[in-house]
Amino acid sequence: MAPRHQPALDRDRVVAAAFEQLEEDGLEALSMRRLAARLGVQAPALYWHFGDKAELLGLMSARIYAMALAETQGAIDWRGWLVAYGEALRRSFAAHRDGALLCARARPPQAIEPEVQAARLAAPLVALGLDQARALSAQAAVIAFALGWAMYAANGPMRDHLAQMLDFDATFSQGLAALVRGL
Amino acid sequence: MAPRHQPALDRDRVVAAAFEQLEEDGLEALSMRRLAARLGVQAPALYWHFGDKAELLGLMSARIYAMALAETQGAIDWRGWLVAYGEALRRSFAAHRDGALLCARARPPQAIEPEVQAARLAAPLVALGLDQARALSAQAAVIAFALGWAMYAANGPMRDHLAQMLDFDATFSQGLAALVRGL
DNA sequence: ACCTGAACACCGTTCAAGT
DNA sequence: ACCTGAACACCGTTCAAGT
Fold this sequence. Notes:
The structure is a homodimer.
Chain A lengths: L10 H15 L6 H7 L7 H4 L3 H19 L6 H18 L3 H7 L8 H14 L4 H24 L3 H7 L2 H15 L1
Helix pairs in contact in A: 4-5, 4-6, 5-8, 5-10, 6-8, 7-8, 8-10
The structure holds a DNA duplex.
């Protein structure tokens, strides 16, 4: 067997480096060229592994959502699941610089058909007794609230001033609880 | 009196043209150079009227928020005001292509001090009997929900499929009502 | 299969110079 | 006061060519 060269890059290595770059300089500075430089490679090399930059951002955003989903466990009923998921989402968005903005801008990796995707997303809630349509809309509402809050908290007009007047996290939790109670 | 040349540009004309450009090609294509071309001018001319692109985007986002605020009237109590504001925000975000994304990304024009800004924002709710801290946090929650929903609705992973299963606007309204009820 | 070099068509922004 | 011309330091992406 002739020795085969190990490829310098693979998708996981690139995504990991992209998260590092994001942490250090924010979303605006996350360019394909800088990312390539960090990986010791020329920019076009990335296009062997990703169709375009949007695909990379989509994978990063999927990873942020997956992180929240992995933290959501042990719920007894669907309301409990939604609250746990909302809290996990907020932590997940806050865990990476510009995390919410990234998820807002990224087009999700829609490899599979929407029907399958929808069934998969709704599965945890369906297992707890919700029908699929209500599961999807409830989940969408919780994601919207967490996403919007994370963005507001990261960039809001009076963020600093607000932070002196109230507990940001507690207010989020109250809003989330209210939303889920009313669904 | 010697005749004075009318300036070709002013801030309002530029903002109006920017909204046209946004409608036609979306946020990604809203560049200073294209905007200048639409105005029959060279790109650096814009920098006489705006410090940078972020300032222009901030003004656009402020206009979107102001549009919602202007539509919010006739509320009898603070819950009614919040629901009306939330609905108006959703319409306002939807009224311009990439409206929610624009507002999410834009740094707000923070000309005035945060204390004054906070008091001004809270004023309608304070007039209806809420103290300022609760007014600000309630308003933040409603904005977060509307912003997040608009973004999710514009770009969601299963938007098309979801739209077949449920009424998007009705679901938003239910979520908003639930949130406000619980605050 | 995986990456480089060179190029194309763009960006935001600055700044001297024009009027 | 208000705008142009030219330039700087970047972008994402394509594509032939290398190995």
